[in-house]
Amino acid sequence: xxSAVAIDLFRFSRLMIRGGAEARWNDLASGENSGKDxxxxxxxxxxDVYGRVVATLSSQSVRLRDVAAPAWQAIVxxxxxxxxxxxxxxxNGLGRAVASMGRLGGGSTITQQLIKNMVLSNDRTVTRKxxxxxxxxxxxxxxxxxxxxEAYVNNVYWGHGAFGxxxxxxxxxxxxxxxxDVGEASLLAALLPCPEALSPxxxxxxxxxxxxxxxxxxxxHGYLTDDEAKEWGDAPLPRTLELRAxxxxxxSTGLEGIDDFADVYATRGRGLxxxxxxxxxxxxxxxxxxxxxxxxxxxxxxxxxLSELADLLEGREDVLAGGGLKVHTTLDLDLQxxxxxxxxxxxxxxxxxRDKGEAALVALDPANGGVRxxxxxxxxxxxxxxxxxxARRCVGSAFRSFVYLAALQSGAxxxxxxxxxxxxxxxxxxxxxxxxxxxxxxxxxxxxxxxxYTPPANGDGRGHRGVxxxxxxxxxxxxxxxxxxxxxxxxxxxxATARACGIESPMPxxxxxxxxxxxxxxxxxxxxxxxxxxxxxxxxxxxxxxxISEVRDAAGKLVYRRKGVTRAAAGKDATGKLGGLLRDALxxxxxxxxTTGAPNLAGLAGTSDGATDAWFAGYAPGxxxxxxxxxxx
Length: 633
Fold this sequence. Notes:
Distance between the termini: 47 Å
Strand content: 5-15%
Radius of gyration: 28 Å
Mean pLDDT: 80
Number of strands: 18
Structural class: alpha+beta
Shape: elongated
Largest sheet: 5 strands, mixed
Number of helices: 25
Helix content: 40-55%
């Protein structure tokens, strides 16, 4: 134990020294991170790959006296109701947190949160927690309660790039902090535990529930009467967050009743609800469940870029909160907004009287992994859940590329190799390692240790084709020959090829040969599949997907620059041959004609059983793209 503590202390100390913790502490303890009369920090600006402004995020700071009383009262009531009585650390709250193993909250006071965010890091270590407690006790000796609370409201994160109460008030309500009413103040306080997930733009119903809880806390601790809390709790969201009524076309397709965050406040996580259910009419609170338009352009990309920025600057939160950053990203804004429009318009049409459900789209540059387009739903206002990076789905036939790439790489096949498409049951080992199988089948009650796998029928309904070559197998998505190829090269080799190309989700080899057809269990995100197809487009060279290329501070000093790392994931010859097969697949399946530039386009479609998930994965010169359409349930 002593050794572990010593190692932890050493690592923590080195991180704090290198990360400038001493300078941040001196700055905070001097009161320089409190508000300023009539002054504000420079906004952080996010640029696309061509230097066009995508979002401007304010970082203005204010004096506590210029913040409406209900705002700081709501924060104290919800975050640290004993704030004016303890000396930086609430022993009662800390004991309650330890006794409940964190179920009743983390026990951190406003002072401790300020220390963690402005001086230390988010590491979950004993050393960091001890430093947090000691520094909190010391800070209480140096700053008044008003100065501490002032620093807190000016540096805490309220979602959508808004650091500080001035930025949050402007972003959500178009007001200054002094103009906030009780409903607006309680809503801001309610967002603090998870501001992105509870955003009234993305999750209005969750935001309303969280606000009602915050109002109840204000009444409990004497800042409101019970009647006042109930009156404000029953009020709708402020007019600045007024929700759009669904269009007639949206009503006809059932897209007006989507709520992706039904239980987010209770679970502190993103719970997926039903989307695009057949025959589903609007629920009683369908207007509550619809969000407003996004708070900035390219909302899915910007949200992910802010998350990536926070990761890049971990341990340097003062740089992030101070604002004035110039964040250069990989986004192509024109391409992004054209894709957003196409995805939205496609979702407002039906197939046989049924809506098309949700969608996600990712496009990136195969040469360096820069994400050019990122879309996580049909409409950010209706669903802010980012399916492009967070939803693992059954990939179907789009996975076959990795089967044939593994085979081409090993020399097991060429595009002209002949195979037989026939009814066939494959003998396979049962799931588990050899020892477990020996234990299961070591008596006479089992006549053999092998079972069989029968691939599903070909999707074209034409039955088996007989003698075919590898080109026909991939182009026409023939199941039995594909499984034969996987059996020859081995499921482990197929999984390894997929991982090398960029698939990070688990590829359980216990699925056996069914993995070769993209069976359920070998599920991936659209971003992963786009990364993998980008590797094929780059002739076997893999670059990890990323959204930020460079960050500079307000003075123009370089804070971060991405150092591109490209590695060989597959052979140039094998990926070149696979690219030829994928080009033939586009032409043969009617995606393009010979006159539309087919020599430069390649790709493959895929569907899961029951057509719950539909995919297209492909690439053109300089761009790899994956589109997913389907249903969350």
